[in-house]
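User: Please fill in residues for this 248-position structure.
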């Protein structure tokens, strides 16, 4: 099927009618939107095809995030980085093709949920908060094309929502190589203690711990061995009570 997106005027209307349309976001399908559109409101990129896919569905659960990240990236792997910043694509997917998934994973509780998860706010943060683009970008930034398991770091990234959010929204992860090395160092800890980075507070505070380190050292200059040692040192200090996590 062709890569589809909403036209600018339709996107504008959706973004500026959240309060009016908010009740529709609890509907089982998005017929309310399709009834407002005509064939000229949805465009397609004639040069791009992608297979029709269905995301795994479990109510409000993060457990499928990793698998769904693989599904959407495998099916849309040829999307360029420039195309993948186009909010019209992701808004179409959240409102049409992936509506059932969105209703389950990101049920609407208020208008801010619509703005954050069904639309795309400005910049990197918006792409990492949108319910569908976050899955694609999570895989894009961690994919290892020549690895036996190309999604092994993607799996670490999606261990829980806190790790994803607090790590990906840090400025230092704009460096894809650094991001992969950080995840690789977490992976090594995970091999001996898979519960450590699954803890909510740990997954929130370790990205901040690295950010504080970046105040003394240029993180972009660090190699894998150094970051492995940083992660191991953090792990040992926490489990032995030498770091008060709540103070970070």
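Assistant: Residues filled in for all 248 positions:
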């Amino acid at each position: 099927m062709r890569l589809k997106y909403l036209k600018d005027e339709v996107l504008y209307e959706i973004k500026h009618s959240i309060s009016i349309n908010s009740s529709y976001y609890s509907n089982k399908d998005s017929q309310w939107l399709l009834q407002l559109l005509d064939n000229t409101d949805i465009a397609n990129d004639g040069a791009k095809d992608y297979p029709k896919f269905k995301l795994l569905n479990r109510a409000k659960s993060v457990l499928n995030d990793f698998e769904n990240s693989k599904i959407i990236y495998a099916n849309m792997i040829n999307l360029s980085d420039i195309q993948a910043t186009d909010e019209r694509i992701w808004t179409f997917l959240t409102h049409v093709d992936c509506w059932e998934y969105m209703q389950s994973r990101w049920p609407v509780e208020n208008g801010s949920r619509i703005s954050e998860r069904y639309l795309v706010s400005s910049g990197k943060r918006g792409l990492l908060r949108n319910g569908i683009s976050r899955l694609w970008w999570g895989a894009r930034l961690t994919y290892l094309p020549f690895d036996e398991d190309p999604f092994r770091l993607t799996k670490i990234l999606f261990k829980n929502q806190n790790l994803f959010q607090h790590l990906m929204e840090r400025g230092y992860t704009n460096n894809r190589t650094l991001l992969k090395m950080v995840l690789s160092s977490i992976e090594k800890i995970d091999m001996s203690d898979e519960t450590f980075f699954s803890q909510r507070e740990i997954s929130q505070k370790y990205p901040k711990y690295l950010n504080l380190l970046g105040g003394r050292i240029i993180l972009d200059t660090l190699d894998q061995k150094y970051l492995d040692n940083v992660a191991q040192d953090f792990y040992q200090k926490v489990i032995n009570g030498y770091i008060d996590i709540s103070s970070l």
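For context: The chain has 14 helices and two strands.
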